[in-house]
């Protein structure tokens, strides 16, 4: 189970099972996309193509839906998924600068992932922690009352964790 | 008998059938409600909100979707309604790339006309303009999303009428755009180049890939012998651009205009249509007699051919191996004609005028260059020919009628009707008896295959052989028919398929009629009338009577389906993946 090609095969099999489960259900596209995204972490062309073929809808239909809903991703997410709250409270407290700082040091834009697969960056709406504004979440950890200057330290913490793990 | 309800529109009592819309009911009593996204039978989704009316509800409702009901009171014209429509239109215009003077749809733009009708003299909002790349990588179709008003007519015709679905609305909110999956260029999608999106578009967001410059260049090149062929459907519609009523054949004037443009010879693709019938009829008879693959399906429509290659690759052997008339003619010009006239085929430049955008793609197919040269060098649509005629200052309406050139100037009525759905089938059925028995039967007007029903069937007995035939036009109908055949629910010997609804007369390269016309008349039937009229008036109405074609066999091709004919007039097809792996 260590080589990635076997993993890919397993995923393809699992995807086929998901499609088979919903094959004759009306309105199945969105649940299939959800489960496929859970499996792959995002919805690349090859996965959307399989789904289109399997459910007998056009790829244009699938892509139209994937791009309409914010919860579907076209790019892979990082091991550490950074969500920057750009809700009203966070925004007025300077979340925009925090977002820009993250984008600058990670060298990625909104919705993208670093080439090493470690970090992905997304803007999100209110996470319900307005009292801590401005807030970012990295996976399930919440960081509040931030300034742009705090950002490099936080990123470094995760990089150090990775270095230790190796 | 459908049931009726009575409603009032602007104080007028109106009887309207149950299930009809306020828009239709208003139209029936002469009340015009402005529309933009609405295209009858194709796009009825209430997206643009131009047709809002007051039905006494909390908010204004879209008349194109609002069903009539007993006692309904509708107001279509009030200050509130006029203001709502105007604001909506101003918002659409605020982010529209308003390069009207250099737009392909200048003076033939539904948005422009609407702005005029709604008395827009100032746009109060300055919207942010999006700057999207123009996709001009396809041989046939150019998409310019900067001019798109998101009416979705193109999406709907591609998805629902043609069942190709190469484009969709992508993304959301202000960033919404009509695009292919993953913003691929059209050429990398299963787009079949039919161009129905172009003729559905109310604005200039879709157009054909323009080839007029290349044709002008060839015409100016003294080393080239530049000849032109025109498809049957062109004469049935080009008059519309010069003020003739829809359905007026203007063959003589069209030929005269082409001669004025400087073409050395003006030929009629109908001649090649007759040649096609000889080859295709012979192929059909051979397949029936010798247990060949059946049903045999026509191969004249390049949109249909690409559709088959993408979606029915297992049926490629059912396709007739005949090249389309356009390419047969090109091959004849660069072989038989070149030899006969003593002209180096390398110096012959063949232009074809087609009602079709897919013909541009077809002309580029490498497998068709069986003479060693491309059969056809440039393809222009009916619309592009109109541009060239206008640009040259030719007074089309006052031209004296002229005749197609010899040799091969003669065509039969069978060739003419190729441009309408059912026409290829009818032409074939006029010749099959002769090809089977050496004698004609009495059938000449085969009305059962005419008309605009989506799928038509006919049965004919010739020399003890029963021939079951079916005709489909519009790729959605083709899909229905083929699925029935594949499921074993229907059995035929011969099927005619044309990609465009109505056949070539309503091809993607034809003059664009706005929704205001298309919603009211059956454009397919009206244009077809021009062809059936010309057919009635011709001396020869069966392809195998065409003296030019008979001479061609005598002097060059020997016999239909013979060795030389096979090499030059037939082709093969390739299975295409719907989206090739990245």
CATH architecture grouping of the largest domain in chain B: 3-Layer(aba) Sandwich
How would you characterize the largest beta sheet of chain A? Answer: 4 strands, mixed
Remind me, CATH topology of the largest domain in chain A? Glutaredoxin
Cα end-to-end separation of chain B: 55 Å
Question: Which structural class do you get from the secondary structure elements of chain B?
Answer: alpha/beta
Placed side by side, the strands forming the largest sheet of chain A appear as 2-1-3-4
Share of residues in strands of chain A: 5-15%
- Helix content range of chain B: 25-40%
The coarse silhouette of chain A is elongated
User: Level of helix content of chain A?
Assistant: 40-55%
Give helix and strand order of chain A, one letter per element, not per position.
HHHHEHHEEEH
Unreliable sequence segments of chain A? none
Short synopsis of the structure:
The complex is a heterodimer of chains A (166) and B (582). Helix content of chain A is 51%, strand content 11%.
Descriptive overview:
The complex is a heterodimer of chains A (166) and B (582). By secondary structure, chain A is of the alpha+beta class. Chain A has two domains: 4-68; 80-165, 3-Layer(aba) Sandwich (Glutaredoxin), CATH 3.40.30.10. Chain A contains seven helices and four strands; from the N terminus they run ααααβααβββα. Chain A has a four-stranded mixed beta sheet with strand order 2-1-3-4, covered by helices on one side. In chain A, helix 1 runs antiparallel to helix 2 (29-40) and helix 3 (45-55) crosses helix 4. The two termini of chain A are 20 Å apart. Chain B is α/β, with parallel strands linked by helices and 582 residues long. In chain B, helix 9 crosses helix 11 (325-341). The radius of gyration of chain B is 25 Å and the shape is globular. The relative contact order of chain B is 0.12.
């Amino acid at each position: 189970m260590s080589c990635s090609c076997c993993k890919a095969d397993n995923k393809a099999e699992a995807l086929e099972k998901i499609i088979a489960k919903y094959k004759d259900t009306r309105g199945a596209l969105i649940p299939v996309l959800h489960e496929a995204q859970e499996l792959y972490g995002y919805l690349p062309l090859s996965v959307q193509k399989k789904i289109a073929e399997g459910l007998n809808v056009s790829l244009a239909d699938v892509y139209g839906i994937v791009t309409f809903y914010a919860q579907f991703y076209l790019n892979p997410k990082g091991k550490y998924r950074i969500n920057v709250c750009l809700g009203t409270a966070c925004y007025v407290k300077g979340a925009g600068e925090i977002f820009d700082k993250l984008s600058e040091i990670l060298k990625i834009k909104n919705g993208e992932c670093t080439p090493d697969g470690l970090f992905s960056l997304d803007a999100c709406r209110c996470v319900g922690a307005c009292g801590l504004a401005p807030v970012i979440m990295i996976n399930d950890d919440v960081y509040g009352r931030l300034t742009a200057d705090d950002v490099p330290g936080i990123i470094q913490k995760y990089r150090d964790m990775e270095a230790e793990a190796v | 008998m459908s049931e009726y309800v009575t409603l009032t529109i602007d104080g007028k009592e109106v009887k309207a059938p149950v299930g009809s819309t306020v828009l239709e009911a208003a139209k029936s009593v002469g009340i015009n409600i402005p529309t933009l996204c609405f295209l009858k039978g194709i796009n009825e989704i209430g997206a643009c909100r131009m047709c809002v009316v007051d039905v006494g509800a909390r908010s204004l409702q879209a008349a194109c979707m609002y069903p009539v009901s007993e006692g309904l009171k509708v107001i279509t014209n009030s200050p509130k309604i006029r203001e709502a429509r105007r604001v909506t239109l101003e918002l659409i215009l605020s982010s529209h790339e308003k390069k009207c003077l250099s737009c392909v749809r200048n003076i033939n733009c539904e948005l422009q006309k609407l702005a005029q009708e709604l008395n827009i003299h100032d746009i109060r909002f300055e919207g942010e303009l999006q700057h999207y790349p123009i996709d001009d990588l396809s041989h046939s179709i150019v998409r310019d999303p900067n001019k798109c008003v998101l009416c979705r007519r193109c999406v709907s015709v591609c998805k629902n009428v043609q069942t190709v679905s190469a484009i969709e609305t992508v993304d959301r909110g202000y960033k919404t755009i009509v695009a292919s999956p993953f913003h691929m260029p059209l050429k990398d999608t299963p787009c079949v180049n039919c161009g129905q999106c172009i003729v559905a578009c109310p604005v200039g967001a879709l157009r054909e890939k323009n080839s007029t410059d290349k044709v002008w260049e060839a015409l100016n090149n003294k080393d080239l012998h530049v000849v032109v062929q025109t498809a049957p459907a062109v004469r049935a519609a080009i008059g519309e651009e010069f003020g003739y009523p829809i359905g007026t054949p203007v063959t003589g004037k069209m030929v005269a205009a082409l001669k004025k443009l400087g073409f050395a010879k003006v030929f009629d693709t109908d001649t090649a249509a007759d040649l096609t019938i000889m080859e295709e009829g012979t192929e059909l008879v051979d397949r029936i007699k010798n247990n060949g693959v059946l049903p045999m399906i026509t191969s004249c429509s390049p949109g249909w051919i690409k559709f088959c290659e993408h979606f029915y690759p297992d049926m490629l052997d059912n396709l007739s191996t005949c090249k389309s008339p356009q390419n047969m003619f090109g091959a004849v010009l660069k072989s038989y004609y070149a030899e006969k006239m003593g002209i180096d085929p390398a110096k012959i430049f063949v232009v074809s005028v087609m009602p079709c955008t897919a013909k541009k793609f077809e002309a580029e197919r490498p497998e068709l260059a069986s003479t060693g040269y491309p059969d056809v060098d440039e393809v222009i649509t009916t619309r592009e020919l109109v541009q060239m005629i206008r640009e040259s200052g030719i007074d089309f309406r006052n031209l004296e009628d002229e005749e197609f050139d010899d040799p091969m100037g003669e065509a039969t009525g069978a060739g003419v009707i190729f441009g309408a759905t059912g026409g290829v089938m009818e032409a074939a059925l006029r010749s099959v008896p002769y090809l089977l028995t050496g004698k004609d039967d009495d059938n000449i007007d085969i009305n059962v295959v005419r008309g605009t029903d989506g799928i038509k069937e006919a049965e004919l007995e010739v020399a003890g052989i029963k021939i079951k035939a079916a005709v489909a036009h519009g790729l959605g109908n083709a899909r229905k028919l083929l699925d029935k055949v594949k499921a074993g629910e229907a059995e035929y010997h011969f099927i005619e398929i044309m990609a465009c609804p109505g056949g070539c007369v309503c091809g993607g390269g034809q003059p664009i009629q706005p929704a205001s016309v298309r919603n009211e008349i059956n454009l397919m039937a009206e244009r077809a009338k021009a062809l059936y009229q010309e057919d009635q008036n011709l001396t020869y109405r069966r392809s195998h009577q065409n003296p030019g074609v008979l001479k061609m066999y005598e002097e060059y091709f020997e016999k239909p389906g013979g060795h030389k004919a096979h090499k030059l007039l037939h082709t093969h097809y390739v299975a295409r993946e719907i989206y090739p792996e990245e």
